Amino acid sequence: MRTLLTLQSQLCPDLLSIMHKRYTVLRRIYYLQPVGRRSLTSSLQMTERILRSEVDFLREQGLVNIAQAGMTLTEQGLEVLQKLQPFIEEYLGYSQLSGELKERLNIQEVWIVPGDSEHDEWAKKELARAGAQLIKSWVREDQVVAVAGGSTMQAVAESMSPTPTFKRTTFVPARGGVGDAVEHEANYIASRMAKNSGGRYRMLHVPDQISEEAYQLLTQETQISDVLHMIQEASVLVYSIGDAKTMAGRRKYGREFMQLLEEKQAVGESFGYYFDRNGTIVHRTKTAGLRLRDLPKVGRKIAVAGGASKAEAIAAICSVFPQDTLVTDEAAARKILSQNHPL
Amino acid sequence: MRTLLTLQSQLCPDLLSIMHKRYTVLRRIYYLQPVGRRSLTSSLQMTERILRSEVDFLREQGLVNIAQAGMTLTEQGLEVLQKLQPFIEEYLGYSQLSGELKERLNIQEVWIVPGDSEHDEWAKKELARAGAQLIKSWVREDQVVAVAGGSTMQAVAESMSPTPTFKRTTFVPARGGVGDAVEHEANYIASRMAKNSGGRYRMLHVPDQISEEAYQLLTQETQISDVLHMIQEASVLVYSIGDAKTMAGRRKYGREFMQLLEEKQAVGESFGYYFDRNGTIVHRTKTAGLRLRDLPKVGRKIAVAGGASKAEAIAAICSVFPQDTLVTDEAAARKILSQNHPL
DNA sequence: CTCCAAGGGACTTATTATGTCCCTGTAATA
DNA sequence: TATTACAGGGACATAATAAGTCCCTTGGAG
Question: Taking every annotated instance into account, which residue ranges of this chain make up the domain CggR N-terminal DNA binding (chains A, B) (predicted)?
């Protein structure tokens, strides 16, 4: 069932919303029957004419009975209402979830995809697809998109598809940094995004651990300083949120670093910044790129992260960074909401 | 899954047809890729503009890739195509079936509902609902609808819902006849239809087994002859098809009659006429009402019958009576098509 | 070099959806 | 009994969208 809904949401999303609208009307009639058109209108916050069209349709389908005393459900209407309920809840549950999340995390928009991207490959693809679609809908011509690294971002990159607008879009890595697994590196991901979307990209090859002098020299190189400027003036920032525990599990970081993370109770990481559950920055990767103080200048910020284990990290970062949009999955959403309110 | 599709077919039937249309486009692109708009247009028998709108939408959704060489499916597009296939087949299987049935039975229109109405209550309701909807769509004001008897017709009657048009519709029994179970009698069904749809009705109380003199006298009564005239000038005839074996199972008919049916190899019955597998009338109930020679005068003829056991009877009657529309179920449809071609 | 088929733009027309207003009937109530 | 509030339905102008039609540029194959 979920499959069909998911497929339909891709192939005919607006029609699902129509289904939902009609379901809502049916449901309201059921609760208020017998009810007149005007009452329904105000109750459903629709204009009278639209409500009327819907009701006419429902009558045509034999789902509502329309008499002088008002409208009532037919037996069939009731049957449809009851049988459709679980599907609608599934379809709409995410809207509810996202509404609650918006409030809880104080962000403008939340997209939720079904499942758990941590354990379900399809869910991860869904997550990535949603992220990619969001980018597509927000990017205008001649804009710069800064992208961070991580496996989720990689999935997003692979989900991008070409659009004329992207031809004049430049993808830049949010931060430099060499040494991570190449396919999770921001540089690589920026290039993949550009390739899959038909856009351009710039690289930022700044090693992680270099001396201050070397760093200063590097940042004065035109190639590098150009990219740095582009990053700071990016119109869209797309990043993911890493889980501190997963980070700690990776071998190449020294024990010392791991201890530091644990000591400071880091729960997550985003484009080089490590933070604890309160959103306090506890560590910063030493490399060039987008700095925290540049964030407010970024036009749109899109966080893409899913999986129950990242719930804490997502909640933490959203409560501190000014967020525009969070793309997450059902598992993370429910986990976040089940945690105690931070206030 | 079937549930969702069924519900959607009631709540938003156009949703499904649009989904199907887009699926078809996806599928065709997949087969012909890379393909141009003009080739697709002719291949899909769509106008160019419509095809273009669909393709634009699919591109927007990231399902097709659109380049100078032509259109291709994206990875997502392929995924949707594959996952959607079983659903579409289920949804569309019936269209295919109905197409084949039209040809086989040489009738204008065939409606097929899912399942087996003989064993599945929901399927029987679906069948009845389809029949009722069909009546609704065909009846105009001040027309007469002649209805036959039987349990299927009863279900149709119960599925009728009121419409303004029906206020000026008169339902009459296709044939008289008293003695059958009252709830399966044409008289009763005509009255139920009228009641459920908000229309008027007339009764035809002519006993089955009476002497010729009594019959002649009765038919000269104004009340009865009036109704008889209405029947003969009915604009719509709705009837079902009974299975001879089931008929034979009913006790109240004499052994003699049963033997007759078996002797003449009767397979089915409709509004009082019994016929064999070739459609030859082998017996006629002795009562007043619609006669065979009046059939061509009837504007529209709707046969509603389902269940595998009625397949033979359906095929037989359709091959002889000039049919307009058959409403049947999947079980009967498949059974009919699996039988050898009568020619 | 030419030609064909590709996508895309632009414009008109047809169709549908929507907003708005008013009418009539009915049932409860003063 | 008169009144009032609320029921559905009709009518119509207008906004929005879909669809039909024609033409343009471009890139690759012959």
Answer: 18-88
- In a mutational test of the A interface, the residue from B1, B2, B3, B4 whose CB has the highest number of chain A CBs within 10 Å is B4
pLDDT digits (tens, 9 = 90+) for B32-81: 777 877 788 877 778 888 888 888 888 888 888 887 778 888 888 888 88
Name residues whose C-beta falls within 8 Å of residue A152's C-beta, 6 or more positions apart in sequence.
Answer: A117, A124, A127, A128, A131, A240, A304, A305, A306
C-alpha–C-alpha distance, residues A80 and A58, integer Å: 11
Q: Which residues of A touch B3 (CB under 8 A)?
A: 1, 83
Tell which residue, A65, A37, A73, A69, has the closest CA to residue A53.
Answer: A37
CA distance A7 to chain B (A): 6
- Is residue B230 within 8 A of residue B170, CB to CB? The reply is yes
Q: Convert the pLDDT of each residue in B189-240 to its tens digit.
A: 999 999 888 888 998 888 777 788 888 888 888 888 888 889 988 999 999 9
Distance of CA B334 to the CA centre of its chain: 15
Amino acid at residue number A254: G
Shortest distance between the Cα of A233 and any Cα of chain B, in A, equals 27
How far: A147 CA to C1 C1' (Å)?
A: 47
* Residue contact A161–B12, C-beta within 8 A: no
Q: Is B303 helix (H, G, I), strand (E, B) or coil?
A: strand
Q: Report the predicted TM-score, pTM, of the whole model to 2 decimal places.
A: 0.72
Q: How many CB atoms lie within 10 A of CB A178?
A: 14
Q: Scanning every residue of chain B, which has its alpha carbon at the shortest distance from the alpha carbon of A60? A: B163
Quote the CA–CA distance of A305 and A118 in Å, as a whole number: 10
Q: Which residues pair with B298 in a beta bridge?
A: none
Q: What structural domains and CATH numbers belong to chain B?
A: 2-90 (1.10.10.10), 94-338 (3.40.50.1360)
Residue A279 Ramachandran class (φ > 0 left, ψ -120 to 50 alpha, else beta): left
Beta strands in chain B (DSSP E): 64-67, 70-73, 109-113, 144-147, 170-173, 200-201, 236-240, 242-243, 266-270, 273-276, 281-284, 300-304, 325-329
Provide the angle, in degrees to the nearest 10, between the axes of the packed helices B121-138 and B151-159. 60
Q: How far apart are CA A282 and CA A256, in angstroms?
A: 14
Q: Hey, of A1, A7, A71, A80, which one would you mutate to test binding to chain B, going by the most B CBs within 10 A of its CB?
A: A7
